[in-house]
# Entry
Amino acid sequence: MSAISPLELTRQLAADLTWLEGFAGEREELHHAIVPLRLSAALLRNQVGPYLEKRPAQPLHVAVVGGAGTGKSTVANFLLGRQVAEANPQAGFTRHPVAYVAHESAHVLQLINGILGPLVSIPGPTPSDRDEDVFQVRQVAIPSESGPEAIHDAIVWDCPDMTTWKANQYQTRLVETIGLADLIVYVASDERYNDAWPTQYLQYILQAGKPVIACLTKMQSHQVDTLLKHFREHVIARIPECAGVSAVVALPALTAAEQTDPAGVGTAHRQRLLEPVQWWLKQPHKTRYDSVNRAVRFLGQFQETLLTPARHDLKDVATWESWVHTGQQTFITRYRNEHLTGEQFPHFNAAMLRLIELLELPGVGQYVSKTMHLLRSPYRWMKSMFKAPVSQGPAEVQVLQAAFQGWVDHLRLELLQQDEKHPVWSALRQAYQQQRDRQLFDRFNGKIIEFANQQAAETETTARAIYEELEKRPAALNTLRGLKFSVEAASLTGIVFTAGTHLLLYPLLLPIAASVTQGVTEAMGKQYVDAQREKARTRLQQLFTQSLAEPMAQSLSAWPGELLPTLPKLREISHRLPGHLHDLLQAVQKNTKEAS
Amino acid sequence: MSAAPFDVISQHLNDLESQLRPWLQRSHRWPLRMEQQSLLSQQADDLLRQARELVAERPLLVVVLMGGTGVGKSTLLNALAQGTIAEAAFTRPTTREPIVYLHERIDVNRLDDSLKQCKLIRHNQAGLEHKILVDTPDLDSNEIIHRERLEAVLPAADIVLYVGSQEKYHDQAGWEVFLKQKERRAFAFILNKWDRCLAQHSTGVRPDDDLLRDLKAAGFIDPLLFRICAQQWLTREKPTALPEGEQFPALRNWLEQGLTKREMEAIRTKGVGQLLTQLQALLTQVQPPDVQAAARQTETAWQGAISTELSTQMDILLASVAPHQKTLERRFANHLSHPFKGIMGWYAGLLDIGRKGFFRPKLPQLSVAPTDPQLSDLAGFARSCTQEAYKQSLAARNIALADRLLAKADDAGLPTHRLNDDLRIQLKSITEATYMDALARSFVTAEQSLAGPASWRQRMAGLWTWLGYLLPVALFLLVLSWQLYAKFNGTMFVSITDLVLLPPLTALLGMTMLYVLYRSLVPVTWSKLAPVCRTQLREDLHQRMRLATQSLPQQQATLLADERRVVTELLQRTSTALQLIQQQEQTSQVAILYAQ
# Structure
């Protein structure tokens, strides 16, 4: 991960967050996440990126933010000391960010080149109610009489509002500018200061680590103290990060003269506003460093919130995967119970016969063996009479297909019981109804053939190993043969001693003796082969799990991803985002250390 | 307008409500979404409310003030009441609870339930005898509970006075509520703080023009908008410095005199009309589809699935019996008594005893379950075979079968909501015991049909009996006569011993041969038994399965059809009521209050 350069990291992160924002935009239930996502992407694009690029700290960006009609433009004019921004009674007149600079605007454009994300620069001055994703820079001549303290080294951004119903279309422009700003002047009027949505914005701004100066406008002199107190206690205090509000300034309802001449008639009000602003502007490097550091910390702390849209669908996928997993267990159990437990492996019976045959004597001894074989005829006859026939249940392929069908059906049942409005569920339901699960069956049938081949090879090898092992070791084989022959010879000798001259007893006793030895040998062989069978079953189950159950579980888990193309991307982002953020924090810290 | 039609309409609304409510509360096969349910329930409330108001002697008109905090709702109410009845202050938000301002002669019981709980303030203003003014908490401040309180009162409103100020006339928070309500209530608009809207400006649109433009876009052809400065009308004196175009007197006039009885009735009628139209739309949405065809299709599909499944289950069951087939054959042989009589009968009985002593068929019996002394060994054997098969595969297969059936139903387009539960309950009746009994019964049936009185074996019994009578006697006589002939003819030497022993021995040999012949030809072998068992088992289980599942698709379809019928009835009632209302509507005078 560290292979990517920090700058590339910033771009990647911003792109991921923007993608998530687009995703959240398409889902009504995720709309609440749009502003935090956009803000995070804006912080990365407009502040962290340029900082890592080592762009100069000056000029700082001051953004004037607030609800419609609160007098943002008026406050911008007061900051600049001249009436330059259009202040008018139409609520939500300003539709795109407007920057006011004392510098050459071309120079400023170069400074903010490539940032502000999707906003396009248009030449100023253009009426600020142009409702497009643009921004403009207006060069203003700041009068020298506004004093040495005036804002020469800052860019003042007059932003659109966030409260009107049309603001939905342009609040992303506002958020983009907030991400760029080093200092926020939050404007609230006597009507608006306790409004929910602007307060929510103030909270986002403070969480993102921006220093904020709150400016309450249209205050009547007898109300000022009460309102300031009320604002501090009831609005700021409800925000957890309220320490970020460095000052609260009150402006009265301004007269027309004060509005047109902020530096002259309105200078008393102006000074009150400028004082806290300049405290920040005087230490541009610290302001910028702190702002960037806090922004990165914010991104780290709020990553879970940022990932909420991604998690939203991935949670459903995780549920689906847990069903798939449960289904996989049932699938394996069914195969074992319905097929494997009863499977006798015909190969093994042949191998057993071969094993017994191996113990017969070779060469001249074969005549002895043949005689013994003849003697055992009644034994074989009896055995075949009592031998339990092999029972034949359903064929293996049939069992496999039924078990897989059961797996797929059960997933469908779980699905039918879910709220169908979730996109993952509705996509899957639709896929089932369009019989796209047939593709899964095709894949499964392909896998069955593979499995059957592997299985055949496996059982044949195991079966052959039963006798081959003995064949390969002639010493052991001959020892066993000798042992068997000795026992047979001993029992025959015993019979000769017992029966003596009672010739009639021989036809009765000899077959019995020959059969007992053979019976014991066969029982031992059977024990051995049965143990091998059991082992083969275990191995086959492993093989089955590996080459059928696992691949099919993967196919089923990946199915939602095939139906909803957004899922792989969501997974990718939620996977890499935390690591990227961590790397970014370190890059920024390293950069800060180098700078200081 | 006579009173009678209102009575009729009111009765219609009452009837509609009394049918809608129980339908809403009962459980549904075609599930209602949460929001549909709550919307329908609200509409049922509205129906009752409107039904009650329609028959009132003199209609009451509820006018609710709605708007953001600080726009001056309470000030407006105070100005209309010409006194301080609602607390108006400069800290936001001010109004915490709705305030109901009503004439002292209005009976509290006539108020809507949501209004009864509010703070009631009585007055004796002549112009407002039949109007109720309601001041509400804001809809945009940080106090979320205020919004809920507003939403609790809104359904009672006949007319909503949507109050905006220069800052807030455009706000999203109010606009969203307005959009949701505009189809259901009459709306008039107020732009308060009109003086602030007239500030000098070179750019932008004047707020009233801006608002009118929005309202036209929202479907109000000629919206009723009052531009006022409520603050100036708090005292009884006529204010002196009013801005141009101030319309407070017009507003008061409209409220007091403009809304005549006739108009109020028309507003109410229109309100009912809108309610019914909405109800109609919603009911059409929630009407279940006709699924008769789907149910039939499901039935066929289910039969196929069950049939396929059962043949596999037969294989499994018979495979569990097959290893014991020889024991079973012997058991049948031992239980099949021989048809011989006389000497042959006596001899066969003797042989039977010997035979039973040699072949002692022991069918495996259930070891874990308490052994039932009444249980025949065959039933016990069926149980123990089934137990294994059931545990190993049948139980899992039946669960999978239920999944399969639901998938088939979904394929056919039959809604599966709650069908799953029904199906599981039905399939629960098919247990291990079902299979045990079925298998035992199939054995008994097979025994009956193969060896019972009606079987060819029994019908041939007479032949065997006669053979049994004839053969020993014939052999005896034959050998005896041949011996006597030989003896007296002198062709061969026949001793006395021969003469005494040979005929009976031959007869004995003949009887033995006959016995062996009988036992080898007649007994029930597995190859004959298995198909009979299979057929019987299949019939038995198929019947059980059919019994359990057959009626379900049709039942689901019937229940859905029933729901469909109720909704259709509701729709018919709605449309009848709507026709009556449309006859009554006097749209011309109140059209401007409504969205198109």
